[in-house]
Amino acid sequence: YMGGVLERCVASCLVLTTTPPQTSYKHSHLHILVFPDEWEDLLGSGAMLKKLVREGPGQRPQNKQTIVFHVIMRLLDEAHTIVMNTYDTNKPMKFQAGDNHTDIILGITLAVRLMNEGEKASYRFTQARYGYGAEGNPAIGVPPDSPLECDIEIVALQDIEKEPEDMDPQELVPVVKQKKDRGNELYRRKQYHEAIQCYDIALKMLSASQHDSPELRELRVHCGNNKAASLEHLDQLVEAKQACVEVLECDPDNFKALLRG
Fold first, then answer.
1. 192-208 and 169-188 helices cross at what angle (nearest 10)?
2. Most exposed among 4, 82, 94, 184, judged by the fewest C-beta atoms under 10 Å?
3. What are the residues facing 150 on neighbouring strands?
4. Can you tell me the distance from the alpha carbon of 5 to that of 36, in angstroms, rounded to the nearest whole number?
């Protein structure tokens, strides 16, 4: 779950109503509360705390820029167990600013939007909704309903190189597949509205492309069928039938679309 309006707009509007801090100061257009142990309460609820480790000389991310960052993620248990360390693999994570349909946890997507290029900071997400939620992430050892601590370093900000319509099939396929896979994960969680949004984004990218290839057609069929299945779960049968019609325009013999249509 990607959070509400307050969390999505945290970079421009923070409402703080917490216990009295030791001091406070103005930072850009934000009013930040600073506690005696140097943790800043960014949301005023204690749900998202920040401790600056190193200031960054660069700018803050702009919409659609790709944020490249390293993260060390720990459980807030007695041992502060490390469950993720991108420095070890030398594979920093990437997040496109403004992308609300990503498999990166909500807390991190909010945190990196508040950091400058080159900055390093520690964050504590004390509510599980900013981490992996009620399900946790067994694959990396995060139990259900776990608060998390993350050390984050912004390595680089990259401007968008190409729009989907300017990409060749080899460039477009992994971008679309990422959206499809995210939609499939949301479908598995029964978050059908959010899954449909992911499939719609993927289909829009495919429609914008002037290219055709077996892989692109296959992605169009998969996204269309998965969108139809999501719509059926929401009892939006007319819209589901239209999604099947669009699949059949690409693949007239597609069994799933014929069955639903």
1. 170
2. 4
3. 73, 123
4. 29
On whether the CB atoms of residues 48 and 108 are closer than 8 A, the answer is no
What gap in Å lies between CA 245 and CA 237, rounded to an integer? 12
Q: Look at residue 27 in the predicted model and tell me its pLDDT.
A: 37
Q: Are 231 and 239 in contact (CB under 8 A)?
A: yes
Write down the pTM of the prediction: 0.64
The tokens describing 184, both together, are: 């499939």
| pLDDT tens, position by position, 28-71 | 333 344 444 689 999 999 999 999 999 999 999 998 899 999 99
In sequence order, what DSSP letters do the residues of 216-238 get, joined into one string? HHHHHHHHHHHHHHHHHHTT-HH
Residue 201: C-alpha distances to residues 175, 183, 192, 260 (Å): 10, 10, 14, 22
Under 8 Å between Cβ of 176 and 186: no
Could you count the other beta carbons within 10 Å of the beta carbon of residue 246? 18
Pairing of the two strands 48-54 and 40-41: antiparallel
Tokens found for residue 24:
């406070």
Reference 168, options 209, 214, 219; nearest CA is 209
Q: Where is 34: in which H helix or E strand? A: strand 30-34
Q: Which two structure tokens, joined as six digits, stand for 235?
A: 């009892």
Compute the distance between CA of residue 165 and CA of residue 168 in angstroms, rounded to an integer: 8
13-22, 34-43, 127-136, range with the lowest pLDDT: 13-22
